[in-house]
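Figure 2 data, in text form.
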Amino acid sequence: MFERILHLSIYQRGIVLMVVLLVAIIGVFSYQKLPIDAVPDITNVQVQINTNATGYSPVEAEQRITFPIETIMAGLPNLHYTRSISRYGLSQVTVVFKDGTDVYFARQQVSQRIQEAKGRLPLGIEPMMGPISTGLGEIFMWTVDAQKGAKKPDGTEYTSTDLREIQDWVIRPQLRMVTGVTEINTVGGYVKQFHVVPYPEKMISFGLTLMDLVSALERNNLNVGAGYIEKSGEQYLVRLPGQMANLGEIGNIILGSRQGTPIRVKDVADVLIGKELRTGAATQNGKEVVLGTAHMLIGENSRLVSQAAARKLEEINRNLPEGIVATPVYDRTTLVEKTIHTVATNLLEGAALVVVVLLLFLGNLRAALIAACVIPLSMLFTFTGMVANHVSANLMSLGAIDFGIIVDGAIVIVENSIRRLAHEQMRLGRELTLTERLELVFDASREARRVLIYGELIIIIVYLPIFALTGVEGKMFHPMALTVVTALVGAMILSLTFVPAAIAFFLSGKVKETESPVMEWAKKAYLPMLTATMRNRELTVTIAIVIVILSSLLTTRVGSEFVPSLNEGDIALHAIRIPGTSLTTAIEMQNELEETIKKFPEVDRVFSKIGTAEIATDPMPPSVADIFIILKPQSEWTGAHRTKPELIAAMEQAVRKVPGNNYEFTQPIQMRFNELLSGVRADVAVKVFGDDMDTLLTLGEEIEKLLASVPGAADVRTEQITGLPVLSIQMDRAKMARYGLNGRDVQDVVAMSVGGRSTGMIFEGDRRFDLQIRLPEHLRSDIEALKRLPISIPVQNAGAVANAPQAQQMLAPGVPVFVTLGEVANFEITQGPNQVSRENGKRRIVITANVRGRDLGSFVNEAEQLIAAKIRIPPGYWTIWGGQFEQMISAANRLKIVIPFALTLIFILLYTMFGNFRDGFLMFTGVPFALTGGIMALWLRDIPLSISAGVGFIALSGVAVLNGLVMLAFIRGLREQGMSLDDAIQTGALTRLRPVLMTALVASIGFLPMALATGTGAEVQRPLATVVIGGILSSTALTLLVLPVLYRITHRENSKGA
């Protein structure tokens, strides 16, 4: 079959070249549609269920909302696990599905279960699903701020309520229309509300209760339709508009009358524009602002969406009121473009170096260009494959493409053809005719074909184990394996079709096979070395074995991590304060902190989110803040700090001086990555499961102390699960019974006075605002004033109340009698749970730590031993390790099974090629040698083992086998022609020196830019490139020196027999 393909390619070369051109044009078209991103999105398939439960304590939210929702979610098809957080006034349940589940199917299932759960939830509680976005969906953020001296049309200054109104009703609706944006989330400022603020003493003097006020407002804010009437042949709709439109109308609502005088709302209450009781705020550069975030729809292209959002924001800015500006503060495009720039530079430099090497070794420009053409053509083929498989171009997917490995096949054919053409010309002493030339190219291609196909297949097979990775590591590395395999398949097809066709087409006329100076020098150096090793065979083999053993021992000195972390160029800081810190205090502390950070000249801007945003995608209490520090490009740094780690160390010292805060340093995407992986924002997490909160806390604190003592631990802390100050108003049932009061009578009054009660909406065109009843601010926060809150006594019981303050008024019928709250309830200030976390239906507490200055694997081993030795875990409680570490272990376990399987497959291929086990084993000796060089390179560069380095080792084993294959196949060919063993080995080794050196140098030089790059994202590619370069150098040494010796030893008997 392959011979027919070669025949067709050479004799129908015009058609083949046209087809290749067509494929290239399709590739260019695909390239324009290729989605571009910084890193693959590794979010698992998850659905968030957020439930606002105003006034519920964390334990109540857990009992009444979280638990019923979790229970009803159990048994969903493809469910992986659930985790939840119950905080004051909020329950969030995250339902995680198995990979491959369609997210819309998952949401539909969850939605159906939520409908079923509603019967089990308290009245008025409405669970909502989070946006259809991924954890990395926060692609674009902006702040809304007023410039200095900006005034409203009425001459007053803009307040944070006005800024929030502009964000909610001008900016948000327009940005939601941008293709690919699924939700706009806002934090900061105050949502505008219309407030009716009653004064209890005025209400009592008129004998009015709060319920009178509620019903009056509800009954006077309605539009009613009354059908239609027909008149003079026309039909008139009958409408009774009664909707209130402004503060004046609300103030004039009648509550009742006394002695013929109407009592209006404004007589007993202030009517004003008020502020919501907010759960979160935003600041920028030490000043409060409104912060908006665009969430990207799952599966969209983050670069396109954030660019579209940025363009839309510019457009919106032109139409905002004078003096109001919306400033983009975080744009994912910046990171995407930096990383893609790094990847593109590495690929281009790699390609250029490969062409230079080809030229140096082949000494024929046309031949070098033919081999080099395979690079762009196979890349275009790859782009088509990526678009067809919905793979985006990112750090990981393009990170393993080595043009050296891609042109290997083409080199073998080009090199063989040139050699044969040049020899034939010399033999005949004239230029070849067309027929002779085509025959010869066909013959040369056929000769190299077998080695080429087997070699490419081996490298492709070696990448197959990566497809067996599942979960997060699968999502990270599948794109990489897919692009490499596509590129290799493309290269294989091209070297069987395009390369022979191009050689037949372009290598006409006189073909000189000039020995380039590089090759002459290489042969001079190689021959004595080969002779020496062949003489001292036992010594050579012993040295080889010792080197392999030493390198395997060195493996224990190289650390391990999951994936090297991408340097995003920005810093994220997680600030944690004492539970119960009020939002106002948190903002003041935040401003002080931001001013400290802004003093660093490297910082461009700093902005923060405090507490929970409007949509609780990331629920935090007011005591916790996420701070984003956007740095200037490193070329503009003028301060004392040259590198990012230096800057972080200096910043850490500076922020530690700001009192009342604890910190964790990380990066914007990395923070979300870690949280998505296991609900934890750190590298390592110990999860302790159990029932009793106090026991969990005690265990957590013990583990925290131990973890902090392990070298390399940073930012060690236990989840804050207690310490929330609660003003508990305990009703005295006995006293209430004397007045005939029910619990609800008292609770309603307190809930309405302190928390507020909505009584309808006020409409201003499209905009709508809540109408709320709430006590004045100075009374709400004064405990003594709350004790004097009047509670009306049901009329039939009033006669029994002899000592009631208004007992004398009993004669006046219909006048309510009041008792103060302090008479029927006790006020206590207690500490309650701050939050309740659960996973798979069990309460848990998490102790997190980041690891700095050492690798993850050894850190966890040491910590595990310490905990096992020093902490006694009570029955019914258990611990699990989580965070990035979890992924590292699962990936390593999977690879332990799959890599031997791939090596077995390679062995089977070698056996089918050589027809005996002995030569197959000989080829396999390349693998341990390649690994030796890879480990040495990692150790010398002080890079820990990671999944990226593992992928490098996988690629290596393929290249190492390919090198040996080229030489052994040729030596066997010479033996078959009747040469003696020693002559065949020497001639074969010298003849194949050029292709072996070329394939090795080309493959390692193709990765050189990647190993030395310093741009954004370089650290993710560095381990892979380092391993490949080190391994190829060592395996080439083996192929050229040790392999001939091993072949000589294993084939001694045959030579004797011959």
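Caption note: Confidence is low (pLDDT under 50) at residues 804-811.
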